[in-house]
Structures are given as C-alpha cells and as structure tokens.
C-alpha cells in the first residue's frame, strides 16, 4: 500500500476516527462506534472502505487494523523519495543547517555560538560582496529568513560577516566563491 493511498483514506474524518478507535483497541463495529462517537452506519461504511483498501481486516462485526501497513508505506515512500539537497559541502555544517533551516527559512537562531556561526555564514550569502545595502534592504533580505531581523543583523555584525557604518551595511566576511 502506498503512503498516498493511506493519506487519502485518512483524509475522510469518519475513516480517520475508525482507524484511531481500532488503533486504541476497539475490535468490533459497536466498540468503534462507541469510541469514535460515530453512528454505526458511518462506522460500517468507513470500515468497508478501509477493508477494501487493505488497511483493515473485517470478519463480520470484528475488525482488525493492519497497523504494519503504515510502517511499510512509510519505508517505501522514504526509499523512493529524492535525496534532500545538501546545504553545505561540509558534513558537520550540513547537519547544523538541516537542524535550523527548513524550506529556505531559519526556524530558530542557535543558542550555541559555533552552530550560530555556521548558520550566519550560510545566511550571509544573500549579500553580494562589494554591494552596500541600506538598513531597510538588509531587513527585507533577512526577513525572508526569519522574523527577528534585528537579532540577525546584530549577530552578522558581531561576527564580522557584515560591517555597518551610518546605517549602511556591506558584506565583510564569510566564504566567497571566485
């Protein structure tokens, strides 16, 4: 069974409740109806659909969830998923970035200095070397990464990755590809 099929089955609230009740130990249509708060007719319809899909074994009024199908589907989906792109060629830096960067956004600023430095060195690449940026533009670029632009600006300046003078910023550190 594919993960997409399972998700599609569980997108229906009644089927989701039936699966939840079965996972929690209900074993008959009546027990599922009591545990889920659904009418017996809705439980029977959902159980029939789940049984046809192979997620539930139905024997008269007795029901059994094939819970192992969830793990099988997850493993199959993971095996066919494309590899997650690396954020850094350095394995240590990549591990740090994966922990703090999701979908191109910084989910939190690391408290540990060494990890924060890795994140800041990654973040500073949004600034072109040799270009001067007014604070308003720096804020706009940083806001795409994290809402606390003031903290990011301060960290970048403190780590000498950006330099500030009279409200104008420029990149002054970090690795630059040539």
Automatic annotation (TrEMBL):
Alphabetical list of Gene3D superfamilies matching this protein: Winged helix-like DNA-binding domain superfamily/Winged helix DNA-binding domain (1.10.10.10)
Transmembrane segments: none
InterPro entries: DUF2087, WH-like_DNA-bd_sf, WH_DNA-bd_sf
Start and end residues of each DUF2087 domain: 105-171
Name this polypeptide is given: ArsR family transcriptional regulator
Lineage: Bacteria, Bacillati, Actinomycetota, Actinomycetes, Geodermatophilales
């Amino acid at each position: 069974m594919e993960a997409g099929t399972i998700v599609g089955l569980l997108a229906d609230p009644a089927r989701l409740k039936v699966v939840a009740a079965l996972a929690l130990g209900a074993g008959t249509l009546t027990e599922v109806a009591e545990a889920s708060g659904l009418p017996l007719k809705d439980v029977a319809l959902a159980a029939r659909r789940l049984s046809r899909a192979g997620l539930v074994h139905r024997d008269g009024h007795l029901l059994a969830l094939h819970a192992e199908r969830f793990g099988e589907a997850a493993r199959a989906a993971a095996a066919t998923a494309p590899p997650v792109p690396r954020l850094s060629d350095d394995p240590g830096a990549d591990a740090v970035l994966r922990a703090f960067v999701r979908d191109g956004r910084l989910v939190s600023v690391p408290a540990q200095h060494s990890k924060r430095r890795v994140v800041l060195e990654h973040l500073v690449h949004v600034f072109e070397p040799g270009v001067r940026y007014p604070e308003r533009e720096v804020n706009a670029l940083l806001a795409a990464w994290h809402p606390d632009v003031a903290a990011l600006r301060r960290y970048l300046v403190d780590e000498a990755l950006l330099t500030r003078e009279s409200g104008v910023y420029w990149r002054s550190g970090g690795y630059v590809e040539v």
